[in-house]
Amino acid sequence: MTKTALQWGGRFAQPPDATLLAFGSSLEEDLVLAPFDVRCSLAHVAALSGGSIVASNVASALREALARIASEIERDEFASVARACGAEDVHGAIDARVRELCSNGEGEWLHAGRSRNDQVATTLLLYARERAEEGATVSLEIARTVVASAKEELAAGTRLAATTHWQPAQPVLLAFWLVAAAEPFVRAARRFAACAKAARASSPLGSAALAGSTLPLDRIAAAKELGFDAPSRNAMDAIGTRDEVLDVAHAVARAVTDASRVAGELVIWCTPAFGYARLGDASSTGSSLMPQKRNPDPFELVRASAAELVGAYAGALGTLGGLPLSYHRDLQQTKRLAIAAIERGIATLRAFARAIADVRFNRERMNAQAAGGYVVATDVADALILAGISARHAHALVGAAVATAEREGRALTTADLAALAKEAGLATLDAPLDASASVRAKRTTGSTNPDEVAKSIRAIEEEMRSFK
Ligand code: ARG
User: Fold this and answer.
1) Do residues 189 and 467 lie in contact, with contact meaning Cβ atoms separated by under 8 Å?
2) Where do the domains of the chain lie, and which CATH numbers do they carry?
3) How many CA atoms lie within 13 A of 343 on its CB side?
């Protein structure tokens, strides 16, 4: 520990224990916050000079030092400087570097009226805002890619035997499945946008550890410089809350969970047994031993990441339980877990965006499979209901017809419709017997009817356009 890095010490007779200092360090985890802390420190200079607490030459020297640190961060040089100075966290490291860079002791003024608590809280909000914006952007990118694919598949009329419980359920258009895959990412983008807005609302700078300051800090200038709507209303809450960064961690965990469901289904679709989809060479991996293998690893990793992020989010939220108001060191753990979840989550969404753009569907195979599994049985039962047969009776009649056809190893035919009509006391019965007729026959809003799918695509595209 160099002398410059230690931000306290006057009241201690002994230096800190090196092992405990290392145990308490958050530097490796919070280095990602460095550019945000520089902005936060520059805004604090605005608060100091706005309140005439520092002379203008001191403010200029501080700004110059911070600009220099910003370029060190940009050039990837700052991490080693920070590690070498022995500071406990990135906030201390930036303060230490400012003191080192200012030749006439101007750096000794930077920390007037602020605590690292203020730095941590403000910096985390700036970080949360930026990552939330990134989350919205990548979620929209995923949605756009999937919707573009939906338009192609709608034009091609590709059918899919949609499942519940992984058992054939009803025929749908592949485009309908794709829109279902895209919708959660539009919701994710909305969630991220709300997080970014919340992280912009209130600036903790000037909270001065927990109680506010006797120095005339210009909190409005600081808030304005950082793009916040206003200074926070209560210093104790401002430095103690982690709501916004947790909301971003939550939004990330939710979006990756959505991605994980789509990825999980695509993993199955890419198996030769299904043969519905193929992931391109650039996104697939091979085996070191089995020459024929092509594995959809990105989708498997996306599938797995959801659990990791939910765990990190739960851990981060759990650290707040029972914690008294204001700052407590436990919040360092909250920060560590939230950052880990957010960084991994955004990287996962980016990887998912790339991989999903590299999926090709096997239309022939899907169309061929869409006819099997008695997936039109519901439509046949519906036809009976429309002809005045009660729902339970229709269900039982069609169930029995399916059982007979299955025993005989064949699909339902017009002869089955004629037999059903007779059993139900009807003159005739007309019902869809193949996947195309089935989807065309669907008539409710939001159904897999091609016109409804086209309408939903237009609506989702309009909603996506409203983001910018
Ligand atoms: N490294 C700590 C963190 O990131 C900073 C703690 C500052 N406050 C304090 N009172 N020790 O949360």
Assistant:
1) yes
2) 21-112 (1.10.275.10), 117-219+227-368 (1.20.200.10), 370-448 (1.10.40)
3) 11
pTM summary value:
0.95
Nearest CA to 230 out of 125, 115, 94, 95 is that of 125
pLDDT digits (tens, 9 = 90+) for 39-82: 999 999 999 999 999 999 999 999 999 999 999 999 999 999 99
Would you say how long the chain is, in residues? 468
Find out whether the beta carbon of 89 lies less than 6 Å from any atom of ligand 1.
Answer: yes
- Is residue 237 packed enough to be buried (19+ CB in 10 Å), middle (13-18) or exposed (0-12)? middle
Which residue from 226, 32, 23, 197 is spatially nearest to 118, judged by alpha carbons?
226
In this prediction, residue 7 carries a pLDDT of 74
Closest by CA to 82, choosing from 66, 72, 71, 94, is 94
Tokens read off for 427 = 């003159």
On the question of pLDDT at 4 being above 60, the answer is no
* Chain segment 263-319, per-residue pLDDT in tens: 999 999 999 999 999 999 999 999 999 999 999 999 999 999 999 999 999 999 999
Q: Cα–Cα distance between 342 and 348 in angstroms, integer?
A: 10
Which ligand 1 atom sits nearest the alpha carbon of residue 209?
A: 10
Ligand 1: nearest atom to the Cα of 332: 12
CA distances (Å), 131 to each of 171, 354, 466, in order?
Answer: 39, 19, 20
- Residue 119 CA to ligand 1 center (angstroms) comes to 9
